[in-house]
Amino acid sequence: ANRRVVIIVYFTMVVGKCVAVGDHNVGKSALLITRHSEAFPLDYVPKTSEVVTVKEDNGVCLGLWDTREVEFGYSRLRPLSYPGTDVFLICYSVVERNSFTNAAVKWQEEVSHHCPGVPFVLVGTKLDLRDDSKVIASLRERNLEPVSFEEGLAQAQQMGATAYCEVSSITYKGVRGLFRHVSNITLREHVGSRAEGNCLVL
Predict the structure, then answer these.
(1) Rounded CA gap, 160 and 60, in Å?
(2) Gene3D superfamilies under this entry (predicted)?
(3) pLDDT, tens digit, 9 for 90 and up, residues 49-96
(4) Would 84 be classed as within a structural domain?
(5) For position 63, which CATH number holds?
(6) Which residues contact 81 (CB under 8 A, 6 or more apart)?
(7) How many Cα atoms sit within 13 Å of 85 on the Cβ side?
(8) pLDDT of residue 55
(9) pTM of the complete model
(10) pLDDT-based confidence at 165, cuts 50/70/90?
(11) CA geometry: angle 140, 144, 149, nearest 5 deg
(12) Position 44 pLDDT exceeds 90
């Protein structure tokens, strides 16, 4: 008698966790929502922490975790969202130097303390404002200037980031490349072959 052989193949989806941290109003929420909806949130940016999910081209399903910095007492609660993170996005605004400084002295220290060894990407947000004449004029009144690409890259390398990326949620520039890199890191983390090497420019 003929025998039929049935082969069952199981596919396991890789599910990753990506957490965005950074100063208030640097654009973390807008970045995550823009990637999720592929459109800038003109009417709504959440006021409480949220999690959205996206599926990248390599099949990785990413949970994108937003965090808050200003609510009373939240600084003590925020680290509760860190366990299980595959990749951190340490965000700063390219037109806000205090946020650039805090990326290294506050946020890297916090995530490294709670999640040592977890890879992170340094992300410069609001790229569309770097060449905005009104923004530049306002900064010059305070003897300031936007953070340059070269400064951002140098800091990313000094911090030990896996990559440096500049993005604009309004124009979508750099957004897809950023999360493609995050999904690739996540995939490597889950198959046990963490990549090492120089800081990438995305």
Answers:
(1) 24
(2) P-loop containing nucleotide triphosphate hydrolases
(3) 567 888 887 888 899 999 876 554 466 778 888 999 999 999 999 999
(4) yes
(5) 3.40.50.300
(6) 19, 49, 65, 67
(7) 29
(8) 83
(9) 0.85
(10) very high
(11) 115
(12) no
Domain carrying residue 169: 15-201
What's the N-to-C CA distance of the chain in angstroms?
A: 60
Cβ proximity of 91 and 175 under 8 Å: no
Q: Is residue 4 part of a domain?
A: no
Residue 40 confidence (pLDDT): 81
Where would I find the H helices in the chain?
28-37, 74-77, 97-102, 109-114, 133-141, 149-159, 175-191
**Contact assessment for residue 10 and residue 152, using Cβ atoms and an 8 Å cutoff:** no
CA–CA gap between residue 41 and residue 57 (Å, rounded): 23
Bridge-based pairing of strands 15-22 and 200-201 is: unpaired
Pairing of strands 120-125, 15-22: unpaired
How many structural domains are present in the chain?
1
pLDDT at 150: 98
- The percent of residues in the chain predicted with pLDDT above 90, rounded, is 62
In a domain, residue 191? The reply is: yes
Percentage of the chain beyond pLDDT 70 is: 81
Looking at the domain assignment, is residue 1 inside a domain? Answer: no
- Judge residue 56's burial from the number of C-beta atoms within 10 Å of its C-beta, 0-12 exposed, 13-18 middle, 19 or more buried: buried
